[in-house]
Write a structure and sequence with these properties.
This protein is an alpha/beta fold and 211 residues long. The chain has helices at 29-39, 51-59, 68-83, 97-109, 155-158, 189-207; strands spanning 5-7, 14-19, 44-48, 89-95, 114-117, 142-147, 167-172. The radius of gyration is 16 Å and the shape is globular.
């Protein structure tokens, strides 16, 4: 049974399960700000960690992310646990790796929606090594929130992909993989975070049939 960090009202009609990225845990500053922002808008958020990250926390050791089958099984377990404990509909998503893994089980588990916070369309510097094949046929309503400077996928990159019509992308001006903009852009990190939170809150309200 996964351990969760919870934010938001227990009786919310929408619960979003979030997984972390490859290198930062579920209580990273990015996910803390994001989860609290959604909670302030009445959305219940459950964060969990993959086995490798839990081991890092418990044992103080490093190590690479688990293999894909392990990550997907962790996602299935997290979804089953939260769905059994939720008053309303359940959406899934996460930061980078966490969102990518969520996208691979979204249709399978019947999630109400999918939210990817910086999707790793390809490794930095390897634009032909795409991680998009399953996104071409995705049926789950999906929102990807992506910085325009993200080395894992820029607007120019993404324009050439054959993505499912179920997918919508919210672009954050000058944002990198964690949405931080260049100082000269005139944008602030707080503004991009606020835009991302607002976009996800609106999307979840609509995807879960509450709008």
């Amino acid at each position: 049974m996964p351990s969760f960090l919870w934010n938001g009202p227990d009786d919310s009609t929408v619960t979003l399960i979030l997984a972390h990225g490859a290198g930062a845990p579920m209580d990273s500053p990015f996910l803390e700000k994001f989860a609290r922002g959604l909670a302030d808008r009445g959305i219940r958020v459950a964060r969990f960690e993959f086995p490798y990250m839990h081991a890092r926390r418990e044992e103080g050791r490093g190590g690479p992310p688990d293999r894909t089958p392990v990550l997907l099984d962790a996602w299935r377990a997290a979804y089953a646990a939260v769905e059994a404990d939720s008053a309303g509909r359940v959406a899934i998503g996460g930061k980078s790796l966490g969102g990518r893994m969520a996208s691979m089980i979204a249709d399978e588990v019947g999630a109400a929606g999918l939210v990817c916070l910086g999707y790793p369309f390809h490794p930095p510097g390897q634009p032909t090594k795409l991680r998009t094949a399953h996104l071409e046929t995705l049926r789950t309503p999906t929102l990807i929130v992506q910085g325009t400077r993200d080395p894992f996928g820029t607007p120019e990159d993404v324009a050439g992909y054959a993505l499912s019509p179920a997918i919508r992308i919210e672009w954050l001006e000058s944002g990198e993989h964690s949405w931080k903009p260049l100082a000269r852009s005139g944008r602030t990190e707080a503004q991009n975070m606020e835009q991302g939170i607002e976009a996800v809150a609106g999307f979840l309200t609509q995807a879960c049939g509450l709008g």
